[in-house]
Design brief:
The complex is a heterodimer of chains A (176) and B (89). Helices cover 25% and strands 32% of the residues of chain A. With 176 residues, chain A is of the alpha+beta class. In chain A, a hairpin with a 2-residue loop joins strand 5 and strand 6. The radius of gyration of chain A is 29 Å and the shape is elongated. Chain B has 89 residues and is mainly α. Classes of the chains: A alpha+beta (176), B mainly alpha (89). Chains A and B meet through helix 3 of A and helix 2 and helix 3 of B.
């Protein structure tokens, strides 16, 4: 046991053995804080640089040609689920009219919940956070998603609907 | 008639150099934090656009983020300089 110099009493034994002062450990000086901010800023810049490098070296994806469904198998307003381009990429096909069908990735662009087609509301909905997408273009109508649903490009071969690619941007789909 | 007492001016008495140095550092730190928030927003906005297929946003994003990082480094040098000067006194 050790006595405090100012006569406050006796210092407990554990104080001698654990000589770490939590308050001192938690103290952050202005200079340390400034260093932390600078490092974070450089980290943000590195993030932006990474996006640029990724877009420079991104290869153009090659999509398989895959039959999805026969038009007669899906009623108007009905849906068909399938995987495209890989076996772990769920997609949803919606037959919107007698001669028209659209298909999108089934993963919501917000947090990847599975979206479904609401025939009553005429839109694609995400049940997790009430994100709504246009069934015609895949654009966001409401809710937290910031990006449209990636669209599966379909080709009609007689009665058969064939998936031939994916488009991320609805404008690109409209132009094509 | 007695000589008027020579006293330091009011502003020097109230704001000694150490205190002024600290105010300058605090101001610079606040500006630094604001620049960092802008940079964070820029990164998330660029990433969202890039994921949406707009690859053209990557280059302007890097240029603006680089300029902000340079400004942050400049502010850090300023803080370092003021700090050194105040400590020297």
């Amino acid at each position: 046991m050790k006595r405090f110099g100012d006569g406050r009493g006796v210092e407990p034994l554990w104080r001698e053995e654990v000589s770490i002062h939590a308050a001192d450990e938690r103290y952050v000086s202005r200079r340390q804080f400034a260093k932390f901010l600078v490092l974070t800023s450089l980290g943000m810049f590195a993030g932006n640089l990474w996006i640029l490098v990724k877009s420079w070296f991104a290869k153009k994806p090659v999509y398989p040609v895959q039959p999805v469904a026969r038009l007669g198998e899906v009623p108007v307003g009905g849906v068909r689920l399938f995987n495209y381009p890989g076996p772990h990429d769920p997609c949803i096909l919606v037959r919107t009219a007698e001669t028209e069908a659209v298909a999108y990735s089934q993963k919501c662009t917000h947090l990847s919940c599975a979206v479904y087609y609401s025939h009553e509301n005429g839109r694609i909905e995400c049940p997790c956070h009430e994100g709504y997408f246009s069934v015609e273009t895949g654009r966001v109508l409401q809710g937290p998603p910031q990006r449209p649903l990636p669209r599966v490009v379909l080709r009609q071969d007689g009665d058969r609907l064939v998936a031939i690619g994916m488009k991320l941007d609805p404008e690109e789909v409209r132009r094509a | 008639m007695p000589d008027p007492e020579i006293r330091p001016s009011d502003s020097t008495a109230r704001f000694p150099p150490e205190r002024r140095g600290l105010t300058a550092i605090d101001g610079a730190l606040a500006l630094l934090a604001i620049l960092l928030i802008v940079q964070m927003w820029l990164l998330t906005a660029t990433l969202e656009s890039w994921l949406a297929g707009h690859h053209g946003v990557a280059l302007p994003g890097v240029l603006i983020s680089g300029a902000l990082a340079l400004a942050v480094l400049g502010l850090y040098r300023f803080i370092h300089g003021v700090d050194r000067e105040v400590r020297r006194r």
